[in-house]
Write a structure and sequence with these properties.
By secondary structure, this protein is α/β, with parallel strands linked by helices. It has helices at 21-24, 33-45, 61-72, 101-115, 134-147, 160-167, 190-196, 238-257, 261-271, 300-313, and strands spanning 3-5, 12-14, 16-19, 50-52, 80-85, 87-89, 95-97, 122-125, 153-156, 174-176, 200-203, 276-280. The strands form three sheets. An eight-stranded parallel β-barrel has the order 3-4-5-8-9-10-11-12, surrounded by four helices. Strands 1-2 form a two-stranded antiparallel ribbon.
Amino acid sequence: MQTIRIPGTDLEVSRIALGTWAIGGWMWGGTDERQSIETIHAAIDRGVTLIDTAPIYGFGRSEEIVGKALAEHDDGEAVHVSTKVGLEWDDGGGVHRNGSSDRVEREIDDSLKRLGRDCIDIYHVHWPDPTRPVQETARAMRRLLDQGLIANVGVSNFTCDQMERFRAECPIHVCQPPYNIFERGIESSIKPYCERNAVALMTYGALCRGLLTGKMTTDVSFEGDDLRKNDPKFAEPRYGQYLRAVERLQQHAGERFGRTLIDFSIRWVLEMGVPIAIWGGRRPEQMEPLDRLFDWSMDGAALSAVDSILAEAVKDPVGPEFMAPPTGLA
């Protein structure tokens, strides 16, 4: 496992972070606590030293499971935790953004308790709250930093302008946007901004909600609260276009490198200059590709081939905008 030091900090972490949205169960069809703990242990045993979670993942459930898993593992104390703040939910499961000072100060106590920690290694604002000045949220985060309750500050799903205003009140060490072969919007703005300002990118969605596993079929169906029911990528005519791209990418990965599409998709994110890629999972065997992720690399021809496949197969591309939560109570 490769590691990287986050600029401006003393924090050195694995280049793969374990994402725990699915482990929380919400929007992923429930969770199995024992299996989830074993998944976290499998990632740690393969060199992962950064776990990414959030209160909204299962309405506290993911953080609780992460806390239990780290307490049970011999190396749990050495693993760094990234969690988030700024999303609120009601009794009916409705979610909205809340970046108020009160919300930030209340959530940190809940997260520390669930995780069994005295300090959060990386604390992200999960989504910007456009109903209030971003500076209010930034000042609240700065207070937590000064109090030693958090060690480093991150923002997720922020624009460059929002980051600029935030940084006037509080440093940003990490930026967490979506990024994968199919969703590349950060390349024109967020990515160069972070590189210019020494903000470490920690991207999520590397497998594009399962599309880039190569296991999706035309007759797939999603049940319950599965977020893919509302994802335009999984609705025709786009779904067929993306499946054609997946087939060609899978062929390219196998013929050129002898790799699975999962291996190829994660490696692609790292090859594109992303310091830290989040890789989600909910079963221990899903961590097995970590054993073979850093013994190979791609050349320029391989990366250009990806661009050509997308241009030919996906005529009506769409980003991850559907995932944005409401900005206020309904």
